[in-house]
Design brief:
60% of the residues lie in helices and 0% in strands. The longest helix is centred in the middle third of the chain and has 29 residues.
Length: 163
């Protein structure tokens, strides 16, 4: 026991709490779900994740004006998310062709929203995100699966800002 130093002090290395690591893993898993959805269907959702909330305000202001992107009813093109919302551009039988794709989008939306609901219920710091999560759930319940995904992404952006 010569020259042996015994210390009663705890180590100063900071490690994330076990719960924090779990939450970060859940957030990463949800992000991976969005990225896989984009890759599988060739849609772009997450590009605006880092964008300011003012862009959402601008989108809402543009809706229904001459400045809005043309809709399918005015000769524009339908996106898969529009089709997943049940918009057919007024074409008969159009939806039937895309029904398997819409079902796949529906299943992905359900999976993503369920993960977001679970995460928001887990920690009080995500309470400000609850209205956005509720909006995604309501859109899904209304069978507006494309809108539900957009709403889920907004809720996810809120969660990321609180993480």
């Amino acid at each position: 026991m010569d020259n042996e130093v015994v210390s009663n002090t705890a180590s100063n290395t900071s490690k994330p709490a076990a719960g924090t690591t779990s939450v970060n893993a859940e957030i990463a898993e949800i992000m991976a779900e969005f990225e896989q959805l984009e890759a599988d269907f060739g849609i772009e959702l997450t590009a605006r994740l880092g964008a300011a909330a003012e862009n959402d305000i601008l989108d809402e202001a543009l809706a229904g004006t001459v400045f809005a992107a043309p809709s399918a009813e005015t000769g524009g093109t339908l996106s898969l998310l529009d089709i997943a919302d049940g918009n057919t551009g007024g074409q008969e039988g159009f939806f039937d062709v895309f029904k398997p794709v819409v079902n796949a989008i529906k299943n992905r939306a359900q999976k993503i929203i369920a993960k977001i609901v679970k995460l928001v219920r887990k920690l009080a710091k995500y309470a400000p995100c609850i209205p956005l999560v509720a909006k995604a759930v309501r859109s899904f319940a209304a069978k507006k699966y494309g809108t539900a995904l957009k709403d889920a992404l907004a809720a996810f952006a809120c969660i990321q800002s609180k993480a």
